[in-house]
User: Fold these one by one.
Assistant:
Number 1:
Amino acid sequence: MKPFGISAPRNTRRVMFERLEKALCDAPSPPKRQPVASASDTGQPDRDALLAAFLGNLDAAGVSHATAGNPDEAAGAIRAFVRAREAQCVAIWEAEVLAGLTGCDVAGVVRGMGLGVVMPYGERPCPDTARAEVGITGAAAALAATGTVVLTSGPGMPRSVSIVPPAHLAVVPQSRILPDLAAYFATLSPVAGLPAAIHAVSGASSTGDIEFVYVRGAHGPVAVHVIVLGWL
Amino acid sequence: MDTFEQRAEKAAADTRLRGVLRRAAGVLRGLRERAFADFEDFEAARTRLREARLRSVLRLPEMLARLEERVTAAGGVVHYAGDAAEAREIVVGLARERGVRLVVKGKSMIGEEIGLNGAFAGAGIESVETDLGEYIIQLAGEGPSHIISPALHKSREDVAALFQEKLGRTADTAPELTRIAREALREKFLAADMGVTGANLAVADTGSVVLLENEGNIRFSTTCPGVHVAVMSIEKVVETLDDAVDVLALLPRSATGQRLPVYLSVFTGPRREGEADGAVEFHLVLLDNGRSRILADPVMREMLLCVRCGACLNVCPVYKTIGGHAYGWVYPGPMGSVLTPLLMPSRETFALAHACTGCGACREACPAGIDHPGMLLELRRRGVEDMGWCGPGQRLLAGAAEAALAHPLLYRGLLGGLRAVDPGLTALSRLPVLRAFARKRRVPRLRPPFRSRIGATSRERPGRGGGR
């Protein structure tokens, strides 16, 4: 029996790098990056066009949605979705974080419904989240071209909330809608560092692994619902 | 052990498998057509992807050093594995040191390449594949037959019987079968101590690993257990997020016909201070296992641009006839026929170079513009030179054929003689060097020379032969 610990020789790295350097000694020089026409060259696409494209692609991705024109409408839309899912218990991002991200007191609305609320915590956070029927998050961005909601990890923004419960509700201010993935990546700074996890979510968890039959609800949410806050 | 030829022959004669493959090919063709229907300029996108990959592959030491630096700065740990055994030792070692009992795995071709499940089993650690397709083939004790859709060879009935046998529960439809797997695997996710995934690509500038999936099993595997280990072959790195965008513009489209998969995840180090979930430890295992040898080979270097989308499998007439298992290892189809002999050079693996009709459909579909047929021709040449793929009889015959083709008079004379004594080529095809070749082919009858026939035809039907 081998002792515990990594038994790979310590010089593996050095040997590998030497081999790679040697392998490339006669290699041609790599191509330079060609500039690409980006959204910013053609002027910012207008807010309404982005929203229309986003909603259209949410439909295409099988994601239901509602657009709220003011905080009351948003509260109504949140309550309507949670009720429609017949949820007794919801998992939700921290109140202040959600308020900061969405400019809307999402947690307050949910508290007002008198439901059980779980927050993942401790050594094994997922079993807690698994008790919830709906997971409620904000979003760092939304992508119009693909009907995508982008979630980042951080304090008060547990990752399990958007993957473990059978339904995921994302609340997105309209101003966070970007054209596409390239536009979102352009907002990230390698110098400042990326969040530990970024999840770009386009639709409900699905699989086609048995005879290519599309099945909605593989491991994660069967339903994804987006509420766009139109006044923000 | 059986040879590639024997396996291919057996697979091609399997009518059930042929039916499954034919259906799959139809679906995959439809997905591809739909994916590129709205696509403006495939050639331009392909050039961008190819250049993004080249920028990194041609500067691989620099890219890996930067990746290591950034992953480390984000709190992750980078490990280097020269070969499969080292990679297994590192990953299983990480599990052992932490007293891990249950590992949940995302689909990873590198995991298959290094035989990770076997290594975990040998160490008494349970490792469960959590991608539905991989879960099915793990239960069946088989390898993947497609790099994107590993259980493509299994019919619904196969899966139903398998679940009945292994899980004691079954159903008739794909949604019900999926629900059974969902429930079985949900328990595993919630109890697992370690998640092991592959990596679709890594970004050197940010120290990130990018993973694409539809099911959510990778998200569970990286969110719930305390440790996330990503295994990746060294060439999968790109330099910048912009380069990643160029790869992502074509990868999901080419793989599954999606503009983006349901989940595109970017992981940069482990869980940070103040976060409630996500792996507390992040390890990135970088595997060479023959890549540096490919990099040193100017003709074959191009294979390192491959992004593992599986598009070449879906369009390949050979793959569509024999399926994935006949190729004998984890990488099937055109990319596998090139990669397998390069990663594991042997007389047996060089047989794969002959699994090509030269039709070029793979090259056309490849988002990196890899010239598989050209590389397979070169591998055939090397098979002859280095791997003894040509006996003295074949050499003699090839020499004779070459001489005949180079000298018209000799050619006409030889054919004239054959027409006289063996017009059905029956005697010729009994020659030992040709017997195996002729056995699986309809040997043509020698007819009068084309020149004499075309002359006769144009005389018989005046006006048809002349151009307009």
Number 2:
Amino acid sequence: MSQKSWANTCHFLSSMIEIEFLGYFADLVGCKKATIKIRKGKVKDLLEFFPKILEVPKENIIVLVNGIAAKLETDVKEGDKIAVMPPIGGG
Amino acid sequence: MKGWTGKILFYNLSKAKFKVWEYGGDFAGKYVGGRGFAVRILWERAAGIDPLSPANPLIFAAGPLTGLPGPSTGKLVVASKSPLTGGYGDGNLGSLAALHLRWSGFDALVVEGKARKPSYLYIENGKAELLDAEDLWGLDTFAAERKLKERHGKNPGILVVGPAAERGVLYSTIISQEGRAGGRPGIGTVMALKNLKAVVFKGTKQPEIYDKQRYNKLVAEAYRDIEAKPNYEFWIRQGTMAAIQWSQANSVLPTYNFSEGIFDHADKISGDVMEKIKVERRGCPLCNMQCGNVIHDSDSMPAELDYENVALLGSNLGIGDLREVAVLNRIADMLGLDTISLGNTIGFAIEAGERGLLKDVPEWGDSKAVRELVEDIAYGRTELGKMLAQGVKRAAKAVGNGAEKIAMHVKGLEVSGYDCHASPAMALAYGTSPIGAHHKDAWIISWEVQTERLGYTREKVEKLIWMQRIRGGVFETLVSCRLPWVELGFDLDWYLKLFSAATGFSVTMGYLYEVADRVYALIRSYWVREYGGWSREMDRPPAKWFEQPLTKGPYKGAKLSWDGYEKMLSWYYNIRGWDERGVPRISTLRKLGLDDVAKELGKHVPLSE
């Protein structure tokens, strides 16, 4: 079987905010996890680092901040864990 | 008629005779196929019967798109009065049998009565024959199907039941192609009780298509459209297994008998782990996005995985080893047990053991002991196995001492793979599903996560009903797989085009929604008649989600509110045109062209105007 392999982690400067990409979003950005240096900002500021994700229609992007659903305007700060994923259909 | 064959085969096993009903365009137009045909036939032929008696019709129903070339149209509805719930029961499986049923000249097969000895039905090009199955009885589903292939050639459509059904386990399914399963509410049990081990279909004539040239052109474009979807390549790699990680991230992964929504070992049973050890992909005929992922299980045997069976036999039982989960799934398929109900009943037993309500049960994560229990259930080897074979509702009643509080079911059907402590709309989806707690009619969590997740709003109820109309109505009556739409975003408009090219009738989505509403009202009427009445509590999800909050994760402390749920349930009834008890109103039934149903139902329960 053909299998896709990802780099484990993309590093942008130093470890401040951790972002995990689920589903085919990991394919789009080329890694499953990234760490980004932003002391504070908004979810949309983080996504700026990933232009491929921004090409996806907004309603097809789910963002969780520390496991809770967030919006593009939600504030994020150092130490937060972010997960970015597409919606799924639930079988 | 074009698209439909216009024929339904009725086979009476007691008399070993068949007759063919040539139905007209009115019936087709009103019910379309699949679930629509099944519920109308049950309404007329299965009133007040014991589901475990020979009088219970066993129905295999296709729709106008089934078996025609087209994306994921190799599906079949199987239905009966459910021995597990006592109400309407159906399931849907992908199989060559779907194609060959239609190619042998029929849109549905209805099996009635009981054969004198173990038998199987052989249906080929308009004819049906009852053959001896003494040598197949007792065989597991894989072995039985292989034997039938030796007898009837490599590629007929074969549906079989396993040892679990033969011994009356109430959540036995019908299996095909060593991994396709359908009929959660005990439809396999009904089949075995008729002494029917298998049905073999062999046909050579595709139903006539109204505009074949246009149809074929559409189909080629449709397949290409699916393959061009942005998540297609990822889907091919992981299929539904990607949902393990997704559900974990969103705190809905069933864990420890639906006590939690996250599992500490989820990363060991995820789609990523599966992808690394995957050896093969399997699926249904006519599908270009096959979702069956095969790995070698811990017995080194090929075993197929999907989200539901990994969630229920993995995290829900505390088992964090994918190859061990794969063994349990393979054995369940071989024995013909529904993996969802199995994961529930065993989870219930483990939790009951933890609470001191049951003795000599496995512990969380003990896959070896669970495996032994699976076989005890299928073969009725122990008292515990026999009790759990009756499903979680009856088992909880037998255990007593408050065990009902940890029994995860709605109307007697065990809950499928999504925890609802923090998902009110999904809880309503389970509460109002027409077969009991199953997700196929509506799965609303992605949408719910993106809105006011913990809220109880009318908007959620409207969205839920819209989903039921499409998933439970359109796809279950056309009889085509919903996954191209739900998972890859394949546009619903394709189905209108295919329907029109196949049948010659140009219809709108509004027409298909009306059929869906008619089918829903009839299914609900069937439940009400068979139960001799109805009350709201029948549409309530398990008490655990309301009374025992999550203890970890981002939604720690979350639980559902009874008041909020009741509010949503009232909106649900109101939009559907059902009264406050959940019974369809006379005006609703009339509006849907079900005047005869209103008249008949009114003899059993008082109806509201």
